[in-house]
Amino acid sequence: MPILHQPIIREEDYEIFRELVGNDLPEFYGKWLLEQQAEGDGWFALWPDAQPEDIIRVKVSPAEFNSWCKKTDHAPNRLALCEFAEEKATRKAFR
Prior knowledge:
Layout: E1 4-9, H1 14-21, H2 29-46, E2 55-60, H3 62-72, H4 78-93
Parallel strand pairs: 1-2
């Protein structure tokens, strides 16, 4: 079963992420949280046998995301943010 790696942004970091990522993120943090919830709900709709542990929430910071984008030559956007969360979770799992 696939695993969803969901980036988690702290509310106090949200504006910095919006500056990095731009209009790929909703204007307000509350809307971001609702979108994250909907994404998780959609995951369970696609994979009825999925368990809550199949969604891994990965805390991300603006500094580490920005650094990763520069090192990997990714444009800072929402897709890159998801890729970063997946890579960060995978790195932690193999330590």
